[in-house]
């Protein structure tokens, strides 16, 4: 059985992590599908009352279940695949899709699927082709901030503003989130009760941290990710010849830049 599954695993591994033309096309297709899924998640609160919502919901659930199986098959280690944070996120998002009525209050977690786009090898390759590889840390920090803003907005909207008509509730949730994360604190919209206060505290602490991380990524010189064989230092200058930590002679490949 293991021998019969080996060709399938090798093929999937090449498609998911390879650099051939077929692999790039496959990864690009997956990235486009990921973006469409994220757009569906963002529009979810406004599509929920339509008859076609459940059809699209279960269709995406079937696709995510199929991709989880494919990712497991492509992985060289089951333990490593299980320990990936994105695996747990995908499983929880899949549960919210399979049980939309029961877990609707946690639908805001679905926006974390944006991270699936960033983790695709094709994402870094596209930045290289656009000559933006030196901005990869900035892009990832901006995406992390964006995900947190929409995660928090979804939480605030679900638990505090969901009963408001139209898009007013979501706009109020977004307005509160941005005002709190930036510590502007206008005070015209506040969350009631202990849960509201705790939400505001978490928003300010994590929001400031992500803003600082983004600022650091903007002003910090770009460094190549390349592990030193001796000391294991992973970050080096793009033109580094020797490791700054141990002095080991480095041979950083061009594709690492």
Automatic annotation (TrEMBL):
Pfam families: Ion_trans_2. GO terms for cellular component: membrane. Residues 148-220 form the Potassium channel domain. Gene3D superfamilies: 1.10.287.70. It comes from the Bacteria. One of its GO terms (molecular function) is voltage-gated potassium channel activity. The chain crosses the membrane at residues 28-47, 91-118, 138-161, 198-215. Keywords: Membrane, Transmembrane, Transmembrane helix. InterPro entries: K_chnl_dom (IPR013099), K_chnl_volt-dep_EAG/ELK/ERG (IPR003938). This is Ion transporter.
